[in-house]
Amino acid sequence: MSLYTGLVSSVLFPLHEKLKKHDTLAIRKSLEQSQWLSADQLHDLQAKRLSAFVENIYRHVPYYRQVMEERQLTPADIQNAGDLRKLPFLSKNLIREHFEALKSDIAGPLNRFNTGGSSGQPLIFLLGNERVSHDVAEKWRATRWWGVDIGDREIVAWGSPIELGAQDKIRLARDKLFRSELIPAFDMTREKLLGFIERIRQVKPAMLFGYPSVFDLLAKTAEQNDIRMDNLGIRVAFVTSERLYPYQRENISRVFGCPVANGYGGRDAGFIAHECPQGGMHLSFEDIVVEIVDPQGTPLPPGQSGEIVVTHLGTSEFPFVRYRTGDIAALSDKACGCGRGLPMLESIEGRSTDFVVAADGTMMHGLALIYILRDMEGVDAFKITQESLQHTHVDLVVKTGLTDKMTQRVQDGFKARLGQGVDISVCEVSEIPAEKSGKYRYVVSKVAS
Ligand SMILES: [Zn+2]
């Protein structure tokens, strides 16, 4: 028996078998073993799971049966992540169009889930138990990297009224697993913010979980009111769902006295990547195949930014295969200092709509504009809307009233980035409303999207 076969039979096969169990605890234990495998071993394990997954959906999911027959493919043609490009991308529109045909004929109970999405139409899809157990186990593994375990108290700040209304299984499973309390963080008035701060002080959670914008706002409010939050024993703030800006990380960390751990994922795409204490953005590699593709759909090598496309191997009951997330990132080919073999994302640059385009066509991250406003005295909140290449609009919430001098500074700073001929309008507003989804977007470009 070769060394490789020995490895497959002694390590990878048992791990694969354990990962097939739909029991969150067993999956979490198995993930905690596999995270220490080498990157090569993890690729083998992932390939093994991928090929079993493809076999399963070929047999039982009418849509994929048809897609593969049309392309004259059999499961044997898809043996590893590289072979996935033989299959088409899955978009929100295709899910809507083929909803019934995407259900496995051997699916167990499925729960309907509805995500608002940060833009566009809501997506309705189905979640099976297998997928829920894997998503919960992946999150559980990541919280344990930060010393937070099942049973530790957690405060969840969720901004979306849509998601709060949903009777979704992930939430129920999570609430059972974690002693979790929810802060409905939308339409936040000053009184509500102070109420949440008080609640966090009473609960003394081990972990905060939710939108970075919400915890940043809570941190700012606590600081303005001289309320200490760094003596509650909070071990980590897990942030997700929005881009985490460096200034938010710094504020949250300083005020709550804990590190900030960035996560990337969505209800639709799954728990895709999470930061370890050494700063590596590790993929949930055993469960999710990540491809980075250019605008033509061609997979890109590590180091090059493109759209994140995911194949979730726990979704055989309602498959997500090459699902386009609309988010931008690059894969890393580096190893992490923590010693885990789990491959990493190099950077997550946010949604394509977080970018703005200068008059000369240069794409730049909205952060370039955000920093101009962050540095200005008296600016409490803002929203930047790039209406066209020639016109960008800025809404500002200003503590002491907008002065001509401030307007001039915004216009000078923005023109320096976007082009001298660009018209910059500045308007004072009393508040910046959240998007319909409940998320805050600080930069909206009608040009870049
Ligand atoms: Zn690491």
TrEMBL record:
<dbReference type="InterPro" id="IPR042099">
    <property type="entry name" value="ANL_N_sf"/>
</dbReference>
<protein>
    <submittedName>
        <fullName>Phenylacetate--CoA ligase family protein</fullName>
    </submittedName>
</protein>
<dbReference type="GO" id="GO:0016874">
    <property type="term" value="F:ligase activity"/>
</dbReference>
<dbReference type="InterPro" id="IPR053158">
    <property type="entry name" value="CapK_Type1_Caps_Biosynth"/>
</dbReference>
<dbReference type="InterPro" id="IPR000873">
    <property type="entry name" value="AMP-dep_synth/lig_dom"/>
</dbReference>
<feature type="domain" description="AMP-dependent synthetase/ligase">
    <location>
        <begin position="197"/>
        <end position="311"/>
    </location>
</feature>
<keyword id="KW-0436">Ligase</keyword>
<dbReference type="Pfam" id="PF00501">
    <property type="entry name" value="AMP-binding"/>
</dbReference>
